Amino acid sequence: MSAQPSAGAFPIEARPLTPTPADRVAHLLIEANGRLLEGASAARVGHALPSREAVAAAIAHLRSALFPWHFGGVDVEAGLAQFVRRALEAALSKLREPILRGLMVECRHSEGECPSCAAHAEEIVSAFVSRLPTLRHLLETDAWAAFDGDPAATSPDEAVFCYPGMTAMIHHRVAHALHDLRVPLVPRMISELAHTATGIDIHPGAQIGPGFFIDHGTGVVIGETCVIGQRVRLYQGVTLGARTFPLDENGRPIKGIPRHPVVEDDVIIYAGATILGRITIGHGSTIGGNVWVTSSLPPCTHVSQAQFRRDVFDGGAGI
To answer: Which end of the chain is more exposed for a tag (fewer CB within 10 A), N or C?
Structure first.
């Protein structure tokens, strides 16, 4: 009687393979991913997207470099100059790879590394670094605006360290600088980190002048093409949004056209107000709480809800 073959006697490729439920689901998911990428350049397939973890780490290091006494911890005590230099180097080291990956996603180069993207990424990092002193100055004006605009603030330092509006603006100033340098994906990732942490949603394309203050902040929405002047103050729940979305011949929204408000200098917008469309809120205006505005307002306009009215009817009078 011949011996039975061992379990390993047959080559692996000769064994019958029965698809498992997981195999079938994986196939369907791969098909779905292909449908999502229809219309995109073939170069996008196979390139990893920027790492969320790397972007978050870069922002943490950058925040420490911008405000070392607030976010540097005990490491600052060893020497401010050394700490800032190390924090900045760590931030840029973490940021290079996401910027490169973002560029490669939109590049036509489909195989392996792209020397053109790598060179462009270095140019972007260099340009971004040169903007940091101006960015830091803008954030300082934001911190003073928070201190001057909030009676509860004990110092600008408290605003920087504790206020969600300042957290959102640190992220936004960085994201806007990268957006201005035409970095794909990464600016929106940075803005969404702040959105998740604070409930404040600012598109990186929004142009915001110095001395900007968001009090409380939860629920604030600022759209992509907003233009905000100097010394503007918003309260929680304010929306600076679009009223309509012009469509192309395929029924899809046309991208990048101005569709959000222009808010001029020294405007105050109170909680829950909704400002929609490409309209202008003139300088020095005040928009009251829960007001809906869809038309431009001249300078120094004050808009509020109609006064509360209470009628009392005795014995059926007035019915």
So the answer is: N
Q: Where in the chain is the domain with CATH 1.10.3130.10?
A: 48-200
Q: Is 221 helix (H, G, I), strand (E, B) or coil?
A: strand
Query: Distance (Å, rounded) from C-alpha 319 to C-alpha 311?
Result: 11
The runs of H, that is alpha helices, within 163-316 are 164-180, 186-198
* CB 222, CB 206: distance < 8 Å: yes
Burial class for 280, CB neighbours closer than 10 Å (0-12, 13-18, 19+):
middle
Least confident of 9-13, 86-90, 148-152, 242-246: 9-13
Please state which CATH class domain 219-307 belongs to.
mainly beta
pTM: 0.85
Q: What is the mean pLDDT of residues 38-45?
A: 47
Kindly tell me the number of DSSP H helices and DSSP E strands found in the chain.
8, 14
Range list of β-strands (E), the chain: 201-202, 207-208, 213-214, 221-222, 227-228, 233-234, 239-241, 262-263, 268-269, 274-276, 280-281, 286-287, 292-293, 302-303
Asked if 149 and 163 count as a contact pair (C-beta separation under 8 A), the reply is no
The class that CATH gives domain 48-200 is: mainly alpha
Q: What is the largest CA-CA distance in the chain?
A: 112
- Measure Cα distances from 63 to 120, 155, 277 in Å: 24, 19, 33
The pLDDT value recorded for residue 57 is 97
pLDDT in tens, 229-288: 999 999 999 999 999 888 888 888 888 899 999 999 999 999 999 999 999 999 999 999
